[in-house]
Amino acid sequence: MLLPPPVWAHTQPGSVAGFLAGLLHPVSGLDHVLAMVAVGLWGAQLGAPAMWLLPVTFPLVMAFGGFLGLLGVPLPGVELGIAASAVLLGAMVATESRPPLWLAALLVAFFAIFHGHAHGTELPPGQSGLLYSAGFVVATGTLHAIGIVIGLVHRFRIGRIVLQAAGAVVTLAGVIFLWRAL
Amino acid sequence: MIHRPALPTAVAGTALLLASASVQAHLATTGLGPVYDGVAHLFVSFEDLLPALAMALLAGLNGPVAGRLALFMLPLAWFGGGLAGFHGVANGWPAGITSVSLLLLGVLVAADRRLRPPVVAALAAALGLVHGDLNGAALAAAGGEVSGLAGIAAAVFVLVALGSALVLMLHLRWARHVVRVAGSWVAAVALLLLGWTLSGRI
């Protein structure tokens, strides 16, 4: 009674820790954060339906990248891909580019694979894979949502300028990431 | 003060308590009986809660007829599958079956394609049978009572009723998109879970 053994009443051990680890993992890397927020900003600039399509596309394809990583499928240049995502997505926001919807989705999906491959497979030992994955996806989606909410200032003239400046900052940060990755 | 004849008993009892084995019970014990344990089970086990929630979203997106069919089909199938699993009739599902079912539901919600009500009902039945069977087998392995399955099925009923009704009420276009985004999150979680399962890391 004084030294009770572990009682695993239904829930898997490490469940809460797994969720928190997944939740915090995307936030721990500035490269990931900037790219996620840039997706939201760009979606807000493009308006519907891109505003919804991009945040639907990214987590799905990111998970596919994580799936490939978990199966041990190698992906060359992962860090370069992540850095390039910040450069290009930031540039899209900075220049307020309006490519066809399919091209925007394809661009976002392409970079999502790198983010998923790099970040989706780092489950700390002893924690729940399901809840880690849930935390990881929720955090990524929340970063998109933050980007979309910030991007709503696009309806104001000064807001458009602020968004373009934010895109330029993301691009600049991406260049620094790219420089470090090379 | 412990009397001398009772001392060996006390020492032996303390040793037994200290050396007790780990308990890996399937159901959380609420102290209110097996039915309530079953109700609590759904809400503390993410691997069952998430697919039930995804099914509720899918049913709601496909209209009231599909919603009503799923509302009754999912808990009934869950209970039936649970009975089969409890008595060892079925079992032996391939690894990753729950991930695949979750992935399918997530993709269908994210795509928001209109499905015919019988298709939604069939999906609900298949989902209920698989998860119920797994629950029933785990319940039997943990020495639980079969009435726990009734609690699980009741909780599934309530969850689908509330979830699908909430989605049915959404008339704003953006709110429907939010549901689709939630579906993409479910599919993403399922895909990662499938990866964990196939890689043997969980």
Task: Please tell me about this protein's structure.
The complex is a heterodimer of chains A (182) and B (202). Chain A has 182 residues and is mainly α. Chain A contains seven helices and no strands. The termini of chain A are far apart. Residues 1-11 of chain A have low confidence and may be disordered. Chain B is mostly helical. Chain B contains eight helices and no strands. Chain B has helices at 7-18, 34-44, 46-61, 63-86, 97-111, 117-141, 148-168, 173-199. In chain B, α4 (63-86) packs antiparallel against α7. In chain B, 47% of the residues are buried. The chains are: A mainly alpha (182), B mainly alpha (202). At the A-B interface, α3 and α6 of A face α3 and α8 of B.
Which structural traits does this protein have?
heterodimer, A: 182 residues, mainly alpha, 7 helices, globular, disordered N terminus, B: 202 residues, 8 helices
Radius of gyration of chain A, taken over Cα atoms and rounded to an integer in Å: 18 Å
Q: Note the main sheet of chain B.
A: none
The chain-level structural class of chain B is mainly alpha
Please tell me the overall pLDDT of chain B: 81
Low-pLDDT stretches of chain B? 13-26
Number of strands of chain B: 0
Shape of chain B: globular
Which chain pair has the greatest contact? A-B, 40 and 42 residues
SSE topology string of chain B: HHHHHHHH
What quaternary form is this? heterodimer
Mean pLDDT of chain A: 84
Alpha carbon gyration radius of chain B: 21 Å
Report on the biggest sheet of chain A: none
Cα separation of the termini of chain A: 58 Å
Percent range of helical residues of chain A? over 70%
How many domains of chain A? The number is 1
Strand proportion of chain A: under 5%
